[in-house]
Hints:
By secondary structure, the chain is α/β, with parallel strands linked by helices. It is 32% helix and 21% strand. α7 (194-207) runs parallel beside α8 (224-239) and α8 (224-239) packs parallel to α9 (251-257).
Amino acid sequence: MLLIVALIFLPGGAVPFLGTVLRRLTRRSAPTTVAHHVGDEPHAVEAPARRTVPDGPVVLRLDGVTVRFGGLKALEQASLTVRQGEVVAIIGPNGAGKTTLLNVLSGLIGGGRVDGEVDYGGKALLGARATTRRRYGIGRTFQHAEAFPELTVAENVLCTNRRITAEHRRRAAELITGMGLGDVADRRPTELPFGLQKRLDLARAVAERPALLLLDEPFGGLDAGERRLAANQIRKLRDEGSAVVIIDHVLDDLFAVADRVVAFDFGVRSRKASPTRSCWTPASAPPTSAPRAPAPSCPNRATGRRSG
Length: 308
């Protein structure tokens, strides 16, 4: 009888239920609503001046990467290099192959067939499992925040470590505060609005100090203050020597953190540029030939077509 009652009234299990009750009893002064304004939170400062072009060693090299799903080519002959301490922004319309590119790098391509070569620090990535790539130092965020719903915010950040030390706890607390999540550290992701979930997703990825961080629309759905927090974390990670590949449609914030911009259209790499130049330099042309043009005009001129 007790088992039947537990299945009906505690479908998630007794331990998670008791944990929720305990957290609510011990929560000192949690606000009844979660504030979205983060303008006065730590690190919400103006962007620093752009630094010089990174000249570190190449950590990632793609050569002729093609992804097929049956008869559909989601990515065609993509080639790209990323250096240590460099932020490379990938832009393009929906269906251009941007997320497919990140899935190739993180080992989450599903049933697609991948051809070509991907070299990461002298290691061949294609064929390696996603868990192996994580051990190589590759981190990832997603368009929609991926977090463990049964864990608190703090536990989600800490769970990236197999054995938790005092240093891990210090690092997690620093990240949680830096991302403006201090007031909700003992709450579960399902209790938080979308913006805070996205910030948690980024904090979790950064907590591992990845050598290569893949960011899928980290600015999407965030307000101005939240975007500043995210941008500052990306810059901090870059300045510590990590390489970052980032895709987004919020171009002002994307260009503010990028060292280089690469455009894809219908699975094909079509343009390259620096964020301070026009986005429409042909990929085969030297950077000095790029005409000066305002960055905000880039999206319409780059895509021309839209695949939905």
